[in-house]
């Protein structure tokens, strides 16, 4: 069945001339775009049941402390990160180890106060603290949002890449978390027709 009757098209031509045809073609263009999205693959992320977003390495997620090659804490407890933090959510208590090195006895981050500005990461002279790609750390209690030195050392470091979707599984046994089932997945924008056309044309 035709979308527009012959009479309607004739009337459009008689009453509006070429201006009417311009708007009519624009309407057809819009409808064809709608139909192309209607028939293309879905871009909806099946999170948390089946899929999970892996953010880019530049993402500012949960803090982590990096280790040296020998596995020791890289932090030298200079307290620059705590001094520069606008929210005063980092607490560092230094001590001197057997070799006379300055080390953190206490290193706490209160993520409930943090605004994830990244200043602590920028200020660190030894790149010990970083804001990583972990974004699933919600908690029902304020205490659950506190991260101490031991916890910060176990948080995974940044990956080389990101910006893709991986297969994942929701785990609610001990905690609510989504576990990735593979290392690399698909880039979600590959499913967006317009973006793909632009990419192909480039
Ligand atoms: S990201 Fe910003 S607010 Fe959060 S701990 Fe670092 S400096 Fe403070
Ligand atoms: S994380 Fe970096 S800036 Fe903060 S106390 Fe340790 S060495 Fe200093």
Could you describe the 3D structure shown?
Helices cover 29% and strands 20% of the residues. It is of the alpha+beta class and 202 residues long. It has 3 domains: 1-40, no CATH class; 44-57 and 159-202, no CATH class; 60-156, Alpha-Beta Plaits. The strands form 3 sheets. A 3-stranded antiparallel sheet has the order 1-7-8, with no helix packed on it. A 3-stranded antiparallel sheet has the order 3-4-6. Strands 2-5 form a two-stranded antiparallel sheet. Strand 3 and strand 4 (102-110) form a beta hairpin. The two termini are 39 Å apart. The structure holds iron/sulfur cluster (2 copies). The site of one iron/sulfur cluster has 13 residues, from helix 2. One iron/sulfur cluster binds at residues 85-87, 89-90, 109, 114-120, 131.
CATH architecture of the largest domain: 2-Layer Sandwich
The average pLDDT is: 87
Biggest pleated-sheet summary: 3 strands, antiparallel
From the alpha carbons, calculate the radius of gyration and give it in angstroms: 27 Å
CATH class of the largest domain: Alpha Beta
Number of alpha- plus pi-helical segments: 5
Ligands in the structure?
iron/sulfur cluster
Head-to-tail CA distance between termini:
39 Å
Structural domain count: 3
The CATH topology of the largest domain corresponds to Alpha-Beta Plaits
The residue ranges in which pLDDT falls below 50 over 5 or more consecutive positions are none
Quick one: overall form? Answer: elongated
Walk across the major sheet and give the strand order.
Answer: 1-7-8
Considering DSSP H and I runs of 4 or more, what fraction of the residues is helical?
25-40%
Quantity of strands, as a count: 8
């Amino acid at each position: 069945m035709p979308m527009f009757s012959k009479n309607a098209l004739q009337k459009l031509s008689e009453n509006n001339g070429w201006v009417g045809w311009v708007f009519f073609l624009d309407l057809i263009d819009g409808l064809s775009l709608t139909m192309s999205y209607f028939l293309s693959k879905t871009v909806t992320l099946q999170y948390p049941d089946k899929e999970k977003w892996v953010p880019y390495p530049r993402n500012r997620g949960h803090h982590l402390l990096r280790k040296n090659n020998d596995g020791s804490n890289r932090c030298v407890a200079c307290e620059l990160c705590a001094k520069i933090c606008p929210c005063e959510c980092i607490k560092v208590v230094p001590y001197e180890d057997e070799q006379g090195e300055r080390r953190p006895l206490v290193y706490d981050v209160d993520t409930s106060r943090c605004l994830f500005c990244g200043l602590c990461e920028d200020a660190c002279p030894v790149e010990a603290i970083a804001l990583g790609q972990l974004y699933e750390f919600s908690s029902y209690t304020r205490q659950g949002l506190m991260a101490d030195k031991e916890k910060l050392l176990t948080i995974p470091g940044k990956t080389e890449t990101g910006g893709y979707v991986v297969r994942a599984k929701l785990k609610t046994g001990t905690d609510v978390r989504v576990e990735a089932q593979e290392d690399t997945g698909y880039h979600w924008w590959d499913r967006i027709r317009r973006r793909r056309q632009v990419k192909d044309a480039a």
